[in-house]
Amino acid sequence: MRKNLLQLLRGSASQNEMASKYGVIQQTWYSWESGRTVPSNEVMLKMERDFGIPMEVIFFDSFNYKTKLEEVTA
Questions:
Q1: pTM for the complete prediction?
Q2: Is 14 helix (H, G, I), strand (E, B) or coil?
Q3: What's the rounded Cα separation, in Å, for the pair 49 and 44?
């Protein structure tokens, strides 16, 4: 399983620590890391400021999911 950018940005912090920092539970953070869901716009903006990386880069796969589906089914 390849690591996504959110996992890499987390570094040595636990999912629980990151979840607490962003006001969610560990399962929610896991869901973001696995790409099943994305945070609210407010949380994504906070991550953008904290990490110094645009949210479109952090969540590229999630934002481009429809494009990937179209490529696969074409």
A1: 0.78
A2: coil
A3: 9
